[in-house]
């Protein structure tokens, strides 16, 4: 019993750390773009941010393959590959000398980083007593990865140059690979296929198809908002705050504070998804974003910072509800694959948000058009969510009560 408790806590710890790492490679890049890479590479803002599009796309498009391999082969084996490949990829980004090399190694990093979400999230749903709360906590680790990445980037950029912003985190990921391999060899981490909950009763075909259609649209809409916001915030803060004191640290601290707040709010989002109708929580998360995104397009200075915190918190706060909806309409034995398919849309297709942000900024010279377009996506997502069927339980409640 004690051994089972140990393996559970060790696995939860590595799952959280893994989620933190998976969300570092893109924020590091987007923080470096206005502070170092545009001038270093001699490219415009839109041209520079486009270098990560392939990596972002692979981060999503490769996820179903990772989920399929985890279902068919081994979750812990896939996590070993995740730590090794992501660490090596990040180090090589830091050693890149040309735009092509940087784009290539960002692609490699995105490919290996894609392993985490389908493997880690499916495992959490399988072993959690309160899956919404567990997903919220795990989401906090991911958002904290974004916060840590931006602050660490500013520190390393100021002290050692832009290359260190990738090399140092990559080295830490490789150290974690070694620790995970040791834990696996000692039996502290083991493969598990046990379900803590009995499966839910099958949903009707009509409800399942409706949910699939709605979630496919909302995951793309929400993902485009998140992907476009990632490069927009560092650029907007650089324009407004770079002249104040140490501009590099000011921008990195501000972006880090936004994502730290978003990480904390995911725990609240998870608890709300456990306590209230998931459909209602998910709907409100989209609708509240609409006025916030519109305001962000015309805000500046401290007001922009406050609006940014609110809009990113609401965007991230709806993710536990989204993942819980997927779990309620997915057979347990296929969850890793289905979560992988989710990230084809939420991270792969939605990576177009980076191109949308870069194009609209270069075209208009400001952020009014960028955030106005994102507000339209949020409104369309809210309308789609209103078409979801009534909530159904994650587990067979009648059986669980007996």
The figure for the number of domains is: 1
Q: How would you characterize the largest beta sheet? A: none
- What overall geometry do the principal axes of the alpha carbons give? globular
CATH architectural category: Up-down Bundle
Could you please describe the fold and organization of this structure?
- This protein is an all-alpha fold and 402 residues long.
- The protein has a single domain, classed as MFS general substrate transporter like domains (Growth Hormone, Chain: A, Up-down Bundle), CATH 1.20.1250.20.
- It contains 19 helices and no strands.
- It has helices at 2-22, 25-41, 45-49, 53-61, 63-72, 75-94, 99-113, 116-127, 131-160, 164-186, 205-241, 247-275, 278-296, 301-317, 319-328, 335-348, 352-364, 368-385, 397-401.
- Helix 2 crosses helix 11.
Brief description of this entry?
With 402 residues, the protein is mainly α.
């Amino acid at each position: 019993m004690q051994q089972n408790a140990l393996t559970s806590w060790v696995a939860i710890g590595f799952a959280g750390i893994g989620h933190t790492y998976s969300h570092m490679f893109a924020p590091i890049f987007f923080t470096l773009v206005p502070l170092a890479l545009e001038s270093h590479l001699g490219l415009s803002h839109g041209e520079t941010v486009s270098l990560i599009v392939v990596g972002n796309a692979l981060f999503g498009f490769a996820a179903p393959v990772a989920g399929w391999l985890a279902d068919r082969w081994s979750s812990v084996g896939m996590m070993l590959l995740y730590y090794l490949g992501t660490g090596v990829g990040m180090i090589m980004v830091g050693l890149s000398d040309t735009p092509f090399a940087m784009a290539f190694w960002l692609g490699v990093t995105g490919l290996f980083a894609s392993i985490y979400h389908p493997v880690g999230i499916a495992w959490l749903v399988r072993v959690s007593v309160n899956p919404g709360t567990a997903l919220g906590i795990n989401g906090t680790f991911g958002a904290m990865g974004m916060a840590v990445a931006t602050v660490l980037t500013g520190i390393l950029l100021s002290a050692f140059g832009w290359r260190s912003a990738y090399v140092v985190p990559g080295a830490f990921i490789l150290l974690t690979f070694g620790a995970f391999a040791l834990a696996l060899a000692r039996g502290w981490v083991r493969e598990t296929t046990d379900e803590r909950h009995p499966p839910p009763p099958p949903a009707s075909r009509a409800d399942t198809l409706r949910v699939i259609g709605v979630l496919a649209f909302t995951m793309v809409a929400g993902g485009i908002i998140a992907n476009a916001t990632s490069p927009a915030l560092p650029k907007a803060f650089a324009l407004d705050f770079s002249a104040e004191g140490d501009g590099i640290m000011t921008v990195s601290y501000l972006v880090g504070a936004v994502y730290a707040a978003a990480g904390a709010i995911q725990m609240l989002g998870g608890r709300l998804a456990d306590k209230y109708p998931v459909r209602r929580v998910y709907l409100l998360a989209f609708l509240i974003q609409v006025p916030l995104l519109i305001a962000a397009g015309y805000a500046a200075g401290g007001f922009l910072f406050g609006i940014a915190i609110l809009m990113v918190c609401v965007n991230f706060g709806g993710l536990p509800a989204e993942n819980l909806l997927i779990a309620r309409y997915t057979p347990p034995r296929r969850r890793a694959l289905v979560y992988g398919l989710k990230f084809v849309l939420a991270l792969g297709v939605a990576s177009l948000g980076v191109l949308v942000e870069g194009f609209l900024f270069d075209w208009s010279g400001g952020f009014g058009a960028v955030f106005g377009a994102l507000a339209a996506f949020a409104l369309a997502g809210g309308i789609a969510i209103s078409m979801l069927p009534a909530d159904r339980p994650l587990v067979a409640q009648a059986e669980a009560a007996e």
